[in-house]
Amino acid sequence: MALSLSLSGRRAIVSAATSGIGRVIAETLSEAGARVEVCGMDQAKVAEIERHSPAVGAFSCNLADAAATERFFAGAVERLGGLDILINNAGIAGPIEPAEMIALEAWNRTLAINLTSHFLLARLAAPFMRKAGGGAIVNISSTAGLEGHARRSPYNASKWGVIGLTKSLAKELGPSRIRVNVICPGFVDGDRMERVIAETAAQKAVEPEEVRARLLAASSMGTPVRPDDVAAMLLFLVSDLGARMSGHVFVVDADAM
């Protein structure tokens, strides 16, 4: 059988994909031939996707709201006429402070977006993928799901949870030819990382560039990860080339471990 990176004829949903890694992933899937539906919380960014990437269907959705998430999914699957690929990309930094200072509301919101939305969309996707004869789910975690960090307990807990969820789903869905993998990006350049750097710098009373330098020093390659580095790994996993990959953790971090 000839193997290819082409996704022609396949139908994909990408959550939280109107900016950053998610947007690059959605555009990469579209360029590979897939029909793609995405969601995001910022209506202005949704409108920007509609203007600049008209082949991608973009809709507003608060992924912390289970009912809203279900409505988005139902509409997306109806528009696509089925589902072959699901990318769970939703994630927020959450509070950056000691655990005893974190409000329960902030903890719950972080887990609702970073973990529960992944569970909910995968649960909704499974029956449609079975009907299609199989499919591929990729959950986006983080290298924070492989280690601990002070003042990041909700974020780290959610990212560890994504890995556990992935491995469980791979066992459950494998007999239906549904593959489930997880990607753990490291320090990814972008607005969200800049906010984390700024907040960490403020708490430690140092310059943001010092925080950035420490992050880069942890990488043997001395470079941050680009969103398209993550998208390249993901394209491999959802294509025919990744047909026997399931239940695995793929780290894209410029060797920072």
Question: What is the strand and helix layout of this fold?
Answer:
Layout: E1 11-14, H1 20-31, E2 35-40, H2 43-52, E3 56-60, H3 66-80, E4 85-88, H4 104-132, E5 135-140, H5 153-173, E6 178-185, H6 191-204, H7 208-217, H8 227-238, E7 249-252
Parallel strand pairs: 1-2, 1-4, 2-3, 4-5, 5-6, 6-7
Detailed description of the structure:
The structure is a single chain. The N and C termini lie far apart (36 Å). With 257 residues, the chain is α/β, with parallel strands linked by helices. Helix 3 (66-80) packs parallel to helix 4 and helix 4 (104-132) runs parallel beside helix 5 (153-173). Helix 4 (104-132) links the parallel strand 4 and strand 5 (135-140). The protein has a seven-stranded parallel β-sheet with strand order 3-2-1-4-5-6-7, with helices on both faces. The protein contains eight helices and seven strands, in the order E-H-E-H-E-H-E-H-E-H-E-H-H-H-E. 48% of the residues lie in helices and 14% in strands. The mean pLDDT is 95. The longest helix has 29 residues, at 104-132.
Shape: globular
Uncertain residue segments? none
Q: Roughly how many Å apart are the termini?
A: 36 Å
Number of helices: 8
**Largest sheet: spatial strand order:** 3-2-1-4-5-6-7
Structural class: alpha/beta
Radius of gyration: 18 Å
Beta-strand content: 5-15%
How much helix, percentage-wise, in residues? 40-55%
Total strand segments: 7
Order of helices and strands: EHEHEHEHEHEHHHE
Average predicted local confidence, pLDDT: 95
User: Major beta sheet, specifics?
Assistant: 7 strands, parallel
